[in-house]
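Our consortium's second objective concerns turning raw sequence data into structural hypotheses that experimental partners can test. To show how far this objective has progressed, the report includes one record in full. It was chosen at random from the queue rather than selected for favorable results. The single chain below, 158 residues long, was entered without modification.
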Amino acid sequence: MSKVPVTVIGAEMLRAELKKLKSEDRPRIIKAIAEARAHGDLKENAEYHAAKEQQGFIEGRIKNIDGKLSHAQIIDVTELPVSGRVVFGTTVELINEDKGEKTVYRIVGEDEADIRAGLLSYTSPIARALIGKEAGDVVNVRTPGGDCSYEIAKVRYV
């Protein structure tokens, strides 16, 4: 499996979730299973089956995060040479040429993406169109909502 880019903040978030799953959620579920088992017949014990299902979810999520972290290429944008080009981790100010609206996005990994918070996955159509461009360039993007034209107003390495 190839390396997957992740920002420093994204890697910290994954590590924090992993720690919580292993130190809080897993022990809580183990205790819930033991309590449900003490109630007797497991075939008709809904609490037991719910706890086992939740345990499966937690163990799957732990395995998923472990895999992501083991294949992560953690990129600290502040340590990259400032070239003025849009790259993974940069913050980009865009002006929608059709509406005149200003938008700010930070290009991040897939697990970090949250469009409402201005965090744009590097695999999204907008990010793919932006990567490699620099301030002053105009990019045309085909989105699910239709074609958009953006001017790159500013690229920040923060």
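The partners drew two points from this record. The mean pLDDT is 91. The chain has two domains: 4-75, 77-156. Both points have been shared with the crystallography group to help prioritize constructs.
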